[in-house]
């Protein structure tokens, strides 16, 4: 047979006949052409290019990643190396192959990692939701201040805008004299279980208050009595003043809370003070009246009114330090359920002795 002549043979893989060319044309390795890639003879000599490539791909895909591809390079019949090199697989194909070969291992690892993630995420999910709610509540408190809407003054005068009214509607009624009781939802260990009397509150300036049920150490009490009121070394006088921690801020400072049950109404107030103030040379400063019968000041002279062992009609509580909240913080905490506002603050304070709230 001369060069360039063609004749038909059968592919040893698909068993279909096809022409074969002995020329060196470029189309010799076309997918539909037959070639003799190894030393086999007879019916095993020829194979389609596409069939051989498909067989090589199948062999290569059946081996695990990293293993040798020798089986795809050598003829299993004559054990000679193929003249047709196996096709190189792309990166995407190799990734798919790795995933398919290690599917069980990857699925197991994914399940373990997912379980760990959801275990940790589940613990923090409520915290994330709480923080989001806290931020929204705080933003609603601060928003009127950002637009210079002073609702305390404008709404009392009847000139507040509709926006300010909507923002202020449903907000807790906080004012100087409000009595707050911490709920079980209180996150702060310092304020947990505390009772706080608010003595300063402006929505756009912040709030200040005094804790009423946190006792003071005896050493600090004795130190204060020694420096500030030497006459109180008398047992009769020292028993009439209760000391407590008013808050975590400025604990070297102090204020005294006077509770006068007979000073609730104006006609009784003057008579009560005259009855108590028998010492005419004493200048009595009761301080600011936060609630009917409840006074807050810095003068200890009302304590000196009692010179006998009789049961006093006025109780005194000296509180060291105070608590502070920045703009919108206290209103946000009340709205989130950390504090309850006592509706009858004056009656509650006058009915209970210090440290019994």
Automatic annotation (TrEMBL):
The keyword Zinc-finger applies. One of its GO terms (molecular function) is zinc ion binding. PROSITE patterns: ZF_RING_CH (PS51292). The keyword Zinc applies. Keywords: Membrane, Metal-binding, Transmembrane, Transmembrane helix, Zinc, Zinc-finger. GO terms for cellular component: cytosol. The chain crosses the membrane at residues 102-123, 179-199. Signal peptide: none annotated. Pfam families: DUF179, RINGv. Residues 3-85 form the RING-CH-type domain. This is RING-CH-type domain-containing protein.
């Amino acid at each position: 047979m001369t060069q360039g002549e063609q004749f038909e043979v059968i592919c040893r893989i698909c068993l279909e006949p096809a022409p074969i060319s002995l020329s060196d044309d470029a189309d010799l390795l076309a997918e539909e052409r037959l070639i003799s890639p190894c030393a086999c003879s007879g019916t095993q000599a020829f194979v389609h290019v596409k069939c051989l490539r498909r067989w090589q791909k199948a062999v290569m895909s059946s081996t695990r990643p990293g293993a040798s591809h020798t089986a795809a390079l050598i003829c299993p019949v004559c054990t000679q190396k193929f003249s047709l090199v196996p096709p190189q697989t792309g990166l995407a194909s190799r990734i798919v192959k790795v995933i398919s070969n290690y599917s069980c291992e990857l699925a197991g690892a994914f399940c373990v990692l997912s379980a760990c993630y959801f275990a940790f995420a589940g613990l923090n999910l409520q915290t994330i939701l709480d923080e989001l709610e806290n931020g929204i509540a705080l933003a609603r408190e601060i928003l009127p201040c950002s637009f210079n809407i002073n609702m305390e003054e404008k709404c009392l005068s009847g000139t507040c805008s509709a926006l300010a009214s909507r923002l202020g509607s449903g907000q807790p009624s906080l004012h100087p004299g409000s009595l707050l009781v911490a709920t079980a939802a209180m996150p702060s260990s310092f304020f947990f279980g505390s009772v706080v009397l608010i003595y300063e509150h402006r929505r756009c300036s912040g709030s200040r208050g005094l804790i009423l049920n946190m006792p003071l150490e005896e050493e600090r009490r004795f130190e204060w009595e020694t420096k500030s009121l030497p006459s109180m070394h008398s047992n009769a006088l020292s028993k009439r003043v209760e000391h407590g921690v008013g808050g975590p801020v400025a604990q070297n400072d102090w204020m005294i809370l006077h509770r006068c049950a007979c000073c609730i109404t104006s006609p009784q107030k003057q008579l009560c003070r005259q009855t108590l103030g028998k010492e005419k040379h004493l200048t009595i400063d009761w301080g600011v009246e936060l609630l009917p019968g409840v006074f807050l000041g810095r003068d200890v002279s009302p304590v000196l009114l009692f010179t006998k062992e009789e049961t006093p009609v006025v109780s005194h509580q000296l509180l060291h330090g105070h608590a502070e909240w920045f703009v919108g913080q206290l209103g946000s905490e009340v709205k989130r359920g950390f504090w309850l506002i006592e509706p009858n603050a004056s009656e509650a304070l006058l009915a209970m002795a210090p440290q019994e709230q």
